[in-house]
Design a protein that fits this description.
Keywords: Signal. By secondary structure, this protein is an alpha+beta fold. About 60% of the residues lie in helices and about 10% in strands. Strands 1, 2, 3, 4 and 6 form a five-stranded antiparallel β-sheet that branches. The protein has a four-stranded mixed β-sheet with strand order 5-10-9-7, with helices on one face. α1 runs antiparallel to α2 and α3 runs antiparallel to α4. The longest helix is centred in the N-terminal third of the chain and has 32 residues. It starts with 9 loop residues before the first helix and ends with a helix.
Length: about 575
């Protein structure tokens, strides 16, 4: 019997053309302003935006047809359906990769944003992860006009020199090296003059396209993606807020001897211009540079994980874009290197109750406490998907005995469980989780990618997260200004010292349980045991233990310095 002719449903056809036409026209009218002296430039930008929108519509329409036609008639839980779905995912990801490369700008940032979403199909994340946010720099005449508009017509008098050749150019801004009258080297981040208009145009198009897909396929609940992305890029356009974020992060790590955060020069900072202290360095995953300066990549990776573990579990204030280009390694300083943290445009402040619950979740994951993991998953809203939290964060199943790895049998069980999950399960899971959880997932995915490139053990992440989760669970959130006042801070300091001591004991207890869990005869598990043994007795040896205990007693001076 010949196959039935394929009739593309009318709902699919009308949805794509009606909603995307609405997206383009509304974006056009929203940005029209014929009375502006720059009306001609705006008109050209709008035409360019419509061309970009047309490419996006074409890519989405082709993808919808591909999914509809390729999966038609296949039983949802069959091996053929899964195999075909993977093929369609890959074709669609490659289609969107071409779209992002053609449209550049915010489409590249959107592709990178999607690639960092850990729970999306791997075909999308692996394909789109190749995107690079690099563009050809604008002529300095254009940049000079932005500087004059923001810093005044005589802005050049504030500098000894400004290098007209940018040291970096991305989709939103480019950066120039300069020297102040005082001799201080600075980096000037200058926003492109047309970028805000383009952002509104592109994000509006992305939102309407996502609405189109949600209408066609109600089971795919990914409308949160463009909304989250739009909020993220919108915050990136406010350089004043970026400066405030930078200062708050610097305050949080004021006692850290390894982390460097550029100082902000407020008298030369506006919404479109950010002037900051200039640092040199190389990307954190540049292994050739680390070898050249004689620094062990494992030490660098550990410092990176400690930095972000403290952000997540203790401060609850997280840098939202920790890709290697935003974290430089600079020679000198403690242990022979320092970490320079750049680009503070996007931060996430965690709800305090969520932060405490997430600390407990990580403790439960480390201890393989399945009951507590399921209970906390229910609190987060994961429901039946709570059993997959260990897979997401530790790469083990809810039934795994050890957090350091899985047996061959457990791997087979996990493989079968994951086979039963459908694409709509992923979208339902992501929609049900709180925004704080999604933010941590994204940051954690970027960090894991970096340490994987550095070729260091994933146990560094596991142990570091566990250490700070335990501390963050017990550590009281102290107001830094209150702590700086003499006499009034004594109670808080004593309480913090006691809780720090208790958390140290609990951390050692968890480490020992992980160590015992890795105590068996297989070569791979013996290797895990040796690594953990080294971590416990070499990294946290007797001298360091005394240091920790002394730190607990004298936390008054470490956390709450008197003025």
């Amino acid at each position: 019997m010949p196959p039935k002719p394929f009739n593309f449903p009318a709902k699919r056809t009308t949805a794509i053309f009606l909603l995307t036409t609405t997206a383009a026209s509304s974006a056009f009218t929203a940005n029209s302003d014929d009375s502006s002296p720059h009306a001609a430039d705006k008109f050209r930008a709008q035409i360019h935006g419509i061309v970009r929108t047309a490419r996006a519509v074409s890519a989405v329409a082709s993808t919808v047809v591909d999914y509809e036609f390729s999966l038609r008639g296949l039983p949802k839980h069959s091996d053929q359906y899964r195999k075909t779905s993977s093929q369609v995912h890959l074709r669609s990801a490659e289609r969107f990769l071409k779209l992002c490369e053609a449209n550049k700008g915010f489409y590249v940032k959107a592709g990178q944003f999607i690639a960092s979403q850990k729970v999306l199909p791997t075909e999308y994340s692996s394909t789109l992860s190749s995107l690079q946010d690099q563009v050809a720099p604008l002529p300095f005449k254009v940049i000079e006009k932005v500087l004059k508009d923001n810093l005044g017509p005589d802005f050049s008098k504030k500098f000894l020199s400004i290098d007209e050749r940018p040291i970096g150019a991305a989709s939103i801004a480019q950066v120039h090296h300069a020297v102040l009258k005082s001799g201080q080297e600075v980096a000037i981040k200058v926003q492109y003059p047309w970028i805000e208009q383009q952002m509104h145009f592109d994000t509006r198009t992305m939102y309407f396209l996502s609405k189109t897909i949600a209408w066609i396929y109600p089971q795919y609940r990914f409308e949160w993606l463009p909304l989250t992305f739009a909020k993220t890029v919108s915050s990136e356009l406010d350089f004043v807020q970026e400066g405030r974020n930078s200062e708050r992060a610097a305050e949080n790590f004021r006692n850290n001897k390894i982390v460097r955060i550029p100082h902000i020069f407020w008298e030369m900072t506006t919404r479109q211009v950010l002037t900051m202290q200039y640092y040199t360095g190389h990307k954190i995953d540049d292994l050739d540079f680390l070898s050249e300066i004689g620094v062990n990549p494992e030490k660098v990776a550990k410092s990176l994980m400690e930095l972000f573990a403290e952000m997540i579990f203790v401060h609850g204030y997280i840098h939202g874009d920790p890709h290697p280009g935003n974290i430089l390694v600079s020679p000198g300083g403690r242990n022979g290197f320092s970490l320079v943290l750049l680009d503070h445009a996007v931060y996430r402040e965690l709800d305090e109750e969520f932060r405490k619950d997430f600390c407990q979740l990580w403790e439960a994951l480390a201890l393989k406490d399945s009951k507590k993991t399921m209970w906390l998953g229910e609190r987060f809203g994961a429901g039946k998907y709570s059993r997959y939290l260990p897979i997401i964060f530790t790469g083990t199943t809810i039934e795994s005995k050890y957090s350091s790895g899985m047996s061959i049998k457990e791997k087979e069980i996990m493989k079968q469980e994951l086979k039963s999950l459908m694409f709509e399960d992923l979208s339902l899971f992501m929609e049900s989780m709180p925004p704080d959880f999604i933010a941590i997932l994204r940051v954690d995915a970027l960090l894991r990618s970096t340490i994987r490139k550095m070729d260091v053990s994933r146990l560094i992440r596991l142990l570091t997260y566990t250490k700070y989760a335990v501390y963050g669970h017990f550590h009281p959130k102290l107001d830094s200004e209150l702590c700086k006042r003499p006499k009034t801070n004594f109670y808080f300091a004593v309480k913090a010292a006691f809780l720090s001591f208790i958390s140290t004991l609990k951390y050692f207890h968890i480490l020992i349980k992980i160590l015992i869990g890795a105590n068996n005869s297989t070569p791979w598990q013996q290797k895990v045991k040796n690594l953990l043994h080294n971590y416990l007795y070499r990294k946290i040896g007797s001298s360091d233990l005394w240091s920790i205990l002394v730190h607990s007693v004298f936390l008054l001076f470490c956390i709450c310095p008197a003025t």
